[in-house]
Amino acid sequence: MPVAQFLILAAALFSLGIYGLLVRRNIVLILLSLELMLNAVNINLIAFESVIRSADAIGQVFSVFVITVAAAEVGIGLAIVLVIFRNRKSANVDDLSLMRW
Amino acid sequence: MTVSEWASEPVNWVFLVVGLLVLVSGFRVVTAKNVVHAALFLVATLAGTAVLFLMLSAEFVAWVLVLVYIGAVIVLFLFGIMITRAPTGRDLGLDADRKAWPAFLSVATFVLLSWASIDAFGSEVVQEVGDPTSTETLGLALLGRFVIPFEVVSFVLLAALIGGITIARRDLDPVEEEQRRAV
User: Fold this and answer.
1) Which of helix, strand or coil describes residue A1?
2) Is B172 left (phi over 0), alpha (psi -120 to 50) or beta?
3) Which tens digit of pLDDT belongs to each residue from A36-92?
4) pTM of the entire structure?
């Protein structure tokens, strides 16, 4: 099994995440696209690990760390979305232009 | 590796099917007109990713992905969608109007990343091992060589937990607080 096919799939997922991040207006959907990108990074880490096969399974350890940080990021992100929605009655990023010059 | 060599390995066909599922549902995550559908397509993407991890003999990470992402993060997203009362039906205002530059940027990123991947790893193949990486190996690595990063990450989780509660809780009005204290 060539490893490049996994890397290309991860690149495609990452690019889809970038597209969603730039195009979506709803904050929750932007966070969903961010998850897509983090997931692509995990695929890359696991694919590299399957090439080098280190004794400590370093790639897998790092993808566990990425998953943990992603979970923390979603928790904080959704808490912030909740507060913004409570104060502004909207989850649309176009409405959040208060700090724009 | 020629096409016929590639096609002679059954596992490559499994990859093709799962990879297409992942790509199509990933595409639907960023294009769906319905917020709840986008979150549910992310479930399909993550499930496909877990299958890919199993193919690469990363068993523990695959089940962590299923438990943490599909079990917890998606539920959190669905709660977020419900609480922010995003329109759960079809909604045409979800996307920005100008899509040409984002599309160009993402295609350019894809071309660059896949060119770099093929250039650097085009001849590498997945090293087949008999047994999947055991949870024991990962556990020993996490609590041995990587114990300090592991503790730092657990601290990050704790900080995120406390921060999330502090940010999201509704502050009592001063008057209301006074009354509660008096009781």
Assistant:
1) coil
2) beta
3) 999 999 999 999 999 888 888 899 999 999 999 999 999 999 998 888 888 877 777
4) 0.88
Q: Name residues whose C-beta falls within 8 Å of residue B75's C-beta, 6 or more positions apart in sequence.
A: none
Query: Residue B105 has what pLDDT?
Result: 94
ipTM for the whole complex: 0.90
Bridge partner residues of B125 (DSSP):
A2
Distance from CA of B56 to the nearest CA of A (A): 6
How far from A59 is each of A11, B7, B144, CA to CA, in Å?
Answer: 17, 28, 15
Task: Out of B6, B106, B164, name the one closest to residue A16 (CB).
Answer: B106
- For residue B27, list chain A residues with Cβ-Cβ distance below 8 A: 16
B161 touches A: beta carbon within 8 Å:
yes
Substitution target in B73, B123, B140 with the highest count of A β-carbons within 10 Å is: B73
